[in-house]
C-alpha cells in the first residue's frame, strides 16, 4: 500500500458492511477510511499523513454497485471510476461516465472511487463538477445505523462536514434522460489533472441549464446568472438550438463569473488587469463552456 514502513502501532481493519466500518471508526477516531487510496497513499508516501490505523472499505459489497430508486440512481460510494466509465453506466448518467473516463490513467481509474473523489474534494476531481451540475445528494452513514442526506455541494463547500465515525455511503443522482456533457483541459497531451473542466446538464422538465466549472477554485463553481440567462434563450418546445453568437456569449458569461476582474481600488484609480495566466484560464473556461453547451444542444 505504501513504500514507507507503517508504524508498529498501526492497525488495519477490514469490515464487511457499512455499519461495521462506522463502528470501527467510532472505536478508533484516529483511524482513516481507505478505499482506492489514490490520494491517501500519495499523502502517506509524501510524509504528509501518518494515520494511526486504517479501515479498509474494499470488502463492503453494498457500496460497490448501484440501484434504481424513485427516478434516481443510488450509487455506492465504492464504485470505481473504471466501472463508471463502462457503456451500461454511461447510458444511465453520461456526464458522470465521461468524467470517470477522463480521470486519469487506467491504474488510477481502476482504484479510485466515487466516494473518495467526494471526501478528498480535490479541486481537480473530475466527478465533482458533474455531481454539482446534477445537484446530487450524499447519504452519510453514522453510528447506530443512522443515515442522513445532504446536497453534495454542502459537503464540497464545507457547509456541512462529516462528524467522527461517519462515512459517505451512497450518492443519489436524479435520472434526467437528458443531454449531459463533461469537458476538461489539461496541461499535457493525454490523461492528466484538469486545469479547468466544465460539466453541463440540460433539464427539459424544469427548462433549466445547469453548469459547474471545476479546477479553477477550491470547489466547483455554479455560474447561476449565466445558467438562467441562456435557459431563457432556448426554445424548449422546439429544436433547442442557439446561434453561435449566443453560445459564445454564454462561454464568456460563465468564464467572467468564475474568473472575475479584479475589484476596483477604493481610491477610484484604474483596477489592475488580470495577469496573463488568469486571462488564459478565462479563455479556456469560455471555450469549454461554449463547446459543452453546443454539444448538449446538438
Q: Can you describe this structure?
A:
By secondary structure, this protein is an alpha+beta fold. It has helices at residues 18-27, 40-45, 81-84, 87-92, 94-101, 106-111, 114-120, 127-134, 152-156, 224-231, 244-258, 276-297, and strands at residues 11-13, 31-34, 53-56, 66-69, 72-76, 137-141, 147-151, 167-174, 180-186, 194-203, 208-214. It has a 5-stranded antiparallel β-sheet. The chain has a 3-stranded parallel β-sheet with strand order 1-3-2, with helices on one face. It is globular, with a radius of gyration of 21 Å. 40% of the residues are buried. Residues 1-9 have low confidence and may be disordered.
What brief labels describe this structure?
disordered N terminus, Uridine Diphospho-n-acetylenolpyruvylglucosamine Reductase, domain 3, 3-stranded parallel beta sheet, Uridine Diphospho-n-acetylenolpyruvylglucosamine Reductase, domain 2, Enolase-like, domain 1, 298 residues, 5-stranded antiparallel beta sheet, alpha+beta, 3 domains, 12 helices, 35% helix
